[in-house]
C-alpha cells in the first residue's frame, strides 16, 4: 500500500553519542527530529493542529491560516498547508535566517516580516491584528493543546519504546514549550521519578528555537509544574556544541540542539548510570547563512 507524506511525520531515530560524552557510565541519546519531512520537531504539532482543527470542522481546505513563527513551526505549517490545501500566512521577525524564509516560500506560504527589535512578541501581535481584520484563522501554537498532544502521543512514546523504558532524564529546549509539556506529561505518567529538564537562553543570548518569554507572552500551554528544573545556556556554548555535534558525532543539527546537549552534558556530570535523552530539534542546513559553521578556510 502506498503512503502519503503525513505517514512519515515522526518515528525519528534515537541515536547514542559516542565521542562527546567521553568516558562515562551514562548514555546520552539524541532524538533526531530533523528527519521529519519538513526538517524539524515542529512537523508533529503542525500536522496535529491542522488535522485536528479540520476534523472538528473549525477549518476546511481553501481557508486561510495565520501563524506567528520564528521559523520551524512556519516551515512545518507551510508544508502541511500545502499538503492539505490551505492558504498559509506566516508572520515572523525579519532577522530569521534566509534559509527559513525561502523554505516557507517554497511551500507557497505568504510571509510578513516584522522588525527584529520587536522579536516574536511583535510578530504575535501582528498575527492577532490580521485575524481581527478577518484575515484568517490562527491555530496558535502557544495556546493550542493539539501542540503538546502531538508529543504526548508521538515523540515521548517513541523515546519510551526505543529506550525500553530506561530513560532517566529528558532534556528539551524551550520555545513554545509544546515538546517539553507533551513529553513531560507522558514520561511522568510512566515513571514518576524521571527528571524533566528545560533549556532556556542566558540573558542576551539569541539562540534560534530557545526562548524565555516575558510573563505577558508566556505560552498558555506551559505548566511550570511539569518541569523539574531549567538550565540556562549561552549563545557561545550552544554554537560551539553545535559545531562539535557535526565534527565529532557526524550529526548536522541546528543551534538549539547544541544548546540542549550543553544542558544534557551538565546533567550527566551530576549522575551515573543514567540514560539522558535530548531533543535535536532540526537540521543544520537551515542555519548556514548565520555563519555558525564557518571556518577560517571557508
Structural class based on helices, strands and sheet pairing: alpha/beta
Identify the quaternary structure here: single chain
> At CATH's second level, what is the architecture of the largest domain?
3-Layer(aba) Sandwich
CATH class descriptor name of the largest domain = Alpha Beta
Q: Give the biggest sheet.
A: 6 strands, mixed
Strand order of the largest sheet: 1-2-10-7-8-9
Strand content: 15-25%
The CATH topology of the largest domain corresponds to Rossmann fold
Give the uncertain stretches in residue-range form. Answer: none
Radius of gyration from the alpha-carbon trace, in angstroms: 18 Å
Total domain count = 2
SS elements, strand count: 10
Instruction: Provide the helix percentage.
Output: 25-40%
Order of helices and strands: EEHEHEHEHEHEHEEHHE
Mean pLDDT: 94
First and last CA, distance: 46 Å
Number of helices: 8
Approximate shape: globular
Family: Belongs to the cysteine synthase/cystathionine beta-synthase family.
Cofactor: pyridoxal 5'-phosphate
Keywords: Amino-acid biosynthesis, Cysteine biosynthesis, Hydrolase, Pyridoxal phosphate, Transferase
EC number: 2.5.1.47
Describe it.
Keywords: Amino-acid biosynthesis, Cysteine biosynthesis, Hydrolase, Pyridoxal phosphate, Transferase. Helices cover 37% and strands 17% of the residues. It has 298 residues and is an alpha/beta fold. It has 2 domains: 5-35 and 154-287, Rossmann fold (3-Layer(aba) Sandwich), CATH 3.40.50.1100; 42-138, Rossmann fold (3-Layer(aba) Sandwich), CATH 3.40.50. Strands 1-2-10-7-8-9 form a 6-stranded mixed sheet, with helices on both faces. The protein has a 4-stranded parallel sheet with strand order 5-4-3-6, sandwiched between helices. Helix 6 (178-190) links the parallel strand 7 (169-173) and strand 8. Helix 1 packs across helix 5 (146-162), helix 5 crosses helix 6 and helix 7 (235-249) crosses helix 8. The protein is globular and about 55 Å long. The mean pLDDT is 94.
Amino acid at each position: 500500500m502506498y503512503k502519503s507524506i503525513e505517514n512519515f511525520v515522526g518515528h525519528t531515530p534515537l541515536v547514542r553519542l559516542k565521542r562527546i560524552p567521553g568516558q562515562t557510565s551514562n548514555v546520552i541519546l539524541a532524538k533526531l527530529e530533523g528527519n521529519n519531512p519538513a526538517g524539524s520537531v515542529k512537523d508533529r504539532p503542525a500536522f496535529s493542529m491542522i488535522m485536528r482543527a479540520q476534523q472538528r470542522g473549525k477549518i476546511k481546505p481553501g481557508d486561510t491560516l495565520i501563524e506567528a513563527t520564528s521559523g520551524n513551526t512556519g516551515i512545518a505549517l507551510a508544508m502541511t498547508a500545502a499538503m492539505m490545501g490551505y492558504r498559509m500566512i506566516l508572520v515572523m521577525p525579519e532577522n530569521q535566517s534566509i534559509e527559513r524564509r525561502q523554505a516557507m516560500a517554497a511551500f507557497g506560504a505568504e510571509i510578513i516580516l516584522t522588525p527584529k527589535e520587536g522579536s516574536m512578541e511583535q510578530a504575535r501581535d501582528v498575527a492577532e491584528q490580521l485575524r481581527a481584520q478577518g484575515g484568517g484563522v490562527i491555530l496558535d501554537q502557544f495556546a493550542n493543546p493539539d501542540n503538546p498532544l502531538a508529543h504526548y502521543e508521538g515523540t515521548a512514546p517513541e523515546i519510551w519504546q526505543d529506550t525500553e523504558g530506561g530513560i532517566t532524564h529528558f532534556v528539551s529546549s524551550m520555545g513554545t514549550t509544546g515538546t517539553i509539556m507533551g513529553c513531560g506529561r507522558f514520561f511522568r505518567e510512566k515513571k514518576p521519578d524521571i527528571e524533566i529538564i528545560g533549556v532556556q537562553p542566558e540573558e542576551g543570548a539569541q539562540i534560534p528555537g530557545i526562548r524565555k518569554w516575558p510573563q505577558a507572552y508566556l505560552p498558555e500551554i506551559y505548566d511550570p509544574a511539569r518541569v523539574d528544573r531549567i538550565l540556562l545556556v549561552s549563545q557561545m556554548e550552544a554554537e560551539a556544541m553545535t559545531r562539535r555535534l557535526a565534527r565529532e558525532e557526524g550529526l548536522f543539527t541546528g543551534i538549539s540542539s547544541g544548546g540542549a546537549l550543553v544542558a544534557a552534558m551538565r546533567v550527566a556530570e551530576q549522575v551515573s548510570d543514567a540514560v539522558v535523552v535530548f531533543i535535536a530539534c532540526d537540521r543544520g542546513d537551515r542555519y548556514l547563512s548565520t555563519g555558525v559553521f564557518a571556518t577560517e578556510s571557508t
